[in-house]
Amino acid sequence: MTKQSRSISAFFPAYNDGGTIGSVVILTLRVLGSLTDDFEVVVVNDCSSDYTGEVLGELESQYENVKVIHHTENRGYGGALISGFANCTKDLIFYTDGDAQYDVRELSLLLSKLTDEIDWVNGYKIFRSDPLYRKIIGSIYQWTAKISFGLKIRDVDCDFRLMRRSIFDKVHLKSASGVICVEMTKKFQDAGFRFAEVPVHHYFRAYGNSQFFTFRRVFHVGVSLIQLWWELVLKKWFKKLYGQDSSDLLVTNNASGRAEEKDKQ
Known about the structure:
With 265 residues, this protein is an alpha/beta fold. It folds into two domains: 8-211, Alpha-Beta Complex (Spore Coat Polysaccharide Biosynthesis Protein SpsA, Chain A); 214-265, no CATH class. Helices cover 46% and strands 15% of the residues. It is built from eight helices and seven strands, in the order βαβαβαβαβαβαβαα. The chain has helices spanning 21-35, 52-62, 76-87, 107-113, 132-149, 180-190, 215-242, 246-264, and strands at residues 8-14, 39-45, 66-70, 92-96, 120-125, 160-164, 195-200. The protein has a seven-stranded mixed beta sheet with strand order 3-2-1-4-6-5-7, sandwiched between helices. It is globular, with a radius of gyration of 21 Å. The model is unreliable at 255-265 (pLDDT under 50).
């Protein structure tokens, strides 16, 4: 794929990333300019309460390739991703977070792996630069998701990805929380899209706080993960085993039970 034939949207979900999003967007513009002549940067401001909106407003007014979507209410990480993907217009979509924990210059590594036989490229962290408790919780989450959903990638929560926009003609995402990464990986995998992986660097957060690592968020993510497992794994298993949806099977069994009770009366 030559520089002239590439068409890339770089997308960032942003929530209270005022201290990093400006430098991330400007660096991304430079990186994209070295990789392609056809590009855009899309940022979704998910109703930030800091000065993220003001920074993005300045960037949008100064750079014609920058497009900002402002959410009037917080939709969660998944909601921000869904909104961003829907507003990307180029053939390829690269996304990472607006907190600068990944180096956008490593986009070139992803791009080098995107051959005609590959539909999406996923990064995996060489070393996770987070406090110990986050590493422990993150590892538990990783292995739970990989085993429960049968995921084949190394690092499901490495938000440093490059994919063909045409994937979203077939795959539709629903999760509002951070489990959208599990949903996305599982649906990409089940739809038969082929992937490659590359090691990428991960850095300490320089500004703001993680929105995931609170007890309330971890609890809600756990509940969402169970619901997603029911939807994407268990219901499919029932359908394969019995030739119908698990909910249909429950209705059928209830109806059979009522008929049997009536016969006994």
